[in-house]
Amino acid sequence: MDIRLLRALVAVADCGAFGVAARGLSITQPALSKQIRTLEAEVGGALFTRGRHGAEPTRLGATLLPEARELVRRADQLTRRAGQFRRGEAGSLAVGFGLSGIDLAPQAVAAFRRRFPGVEISLEDMSSASQIEAVRGGDLDVGFVRLPAPDDLARLVVLTDTLAVAAPRDADPPPTDPMGVAAWLRGRPVVRLTRAKGPGLVRQIELFEREFDARPEPVQEASDLQTVLALVAAGVGVALVPAGAADIASSTVVVTAIGDGGGAGGVSDGASGAVSAAASGAVSDVVSAAVSWRIGAVWDPARVTRVRDNFLAVVRDLVRRRGATSRPAGSGSAPGCRGSGTPPSP
After folding, report:
1. DSSP state letter for 238
2. Does residue 297 contact residue 315 with C-beta atoms inside 8 Å?
3. Residues in domain HTH lysR-type (predicted)?
4. Could you give the C-alpha distances from 83 to 2, 77, 79, 80, in angstroms and in order?
5. What does the pLDDT look like over 164-218, one tens digit per residue?
6. I need a surface site. Which of 13, 115, 254, 295 has the fewest CB within 10 A?
7. Is the model's pLDDT at 277 over the cut of 60?
8. Cβ atoms within 10 Å of 281's Cβ, excluding its own
9. Per residue in 67-101, pLDDT tens?
10. What whole-number distance in Å separates Cα of residue 151 and Cα of residue 13?
11. Pick the CATH number of 91-346 from 3.10.20.30, 2.60.40.200, 3.30.750.24, 3.40.190.290
12. How many angstroms separate the CA atoms of 336 and 158, rounded?
């Protein structure tokens, strides 16, 4: 049955007159009369009696009216719901994040919830490699991953993170330059994250230790970053963590970001001892790659959803409001739509 016919029945019953009902429906009175006649033919009887006081439902019309009202109400509700889906104000969104997105991703989700409360959101903690496969497979709409990302995925660079030293507040503070940190770590007990949980972070730490000859003494592994920080707080050892871990560390743990050292360790140019610009730049690149990496939001451009686009707009707005894409000691990186990232890969 055409919902327009039921809407005509409800309108005439509510208004008590064909002329008023027609104006309310934005149609002519003859068109409304035709709709009522069509409905009467379908139900097999007259629905209204007309008199000096307007139109009154017949017994048949009064019998049909409650169900017609309910169907019209549900149709209007469905129309509104469809509009919400079309505008991305309803639906579902699956977001993934890893260790380096541990602060930005939840902030973006919270901001999105406030703006679009009708969308159901799931937030999953997984490695960058797992997120990339989930995005490709359609199980995630957006992932916050360590860059670079595969070329078949679109990406938005959201921040640059750096390695940092997590140590008990009462321990002697580490230096902030890479060489100094490496010397400070030699022989110290360290707590590590398991490779299965954070393969990208583990590779980053291994790159740093290899480049700067840091030789700490591993004493324990943990399967999540919160446990690593708890073990540091308990005095089991220190740890190399993303600088963003400062946001989840307890007050008894100090997280000190590692800087790039200003190009320290450059190659000397003959007897003068000067460091050539090319050599200094090359060393600086190595240092930056060892201590910092970029984080990006990635998605599958072949799957287009308004909900995801609305979420990415929230992410862009959040990045702009943060004022920069770098941690305080990180190497700055302007936000963009695509990027090659820095080694190691996810």
Report:
1. B
2. yes
3. 1-58
4. 20, 10, 6, 5
5. 999 999 999 999 999 999 999 999 999 999 998 888 899 999 999 999 999 999 9
6. 115
7. no
8. 13
9. 999 999 999 989 888 887 888 888 999 999 987 67
10. 61
11. 3.40.190.290
12. 8
- Cβ neighbours for 15, distance < 8 A, ≥ 6 positions apart: 21, 24
What residue ranges of the chain are covered by domains with CATH 1.10.10.10? 3-87
Non-local (6+) Cβ contacts of 42 within 8 A are 1, 5
Q: Report residue 301 CA to chain centroid gap.
A: 15
CA 127 to chain centre: 15
What is the secondary structure of 33-95 as a DSSP string? Answer: HHHHHHHHHHHTS--EEEETTEEEE-HHHHHHHHHHHHHHHHHHHHHHHHHHHHHTSSEEEEE
Structure tokens at 120: 């159901």
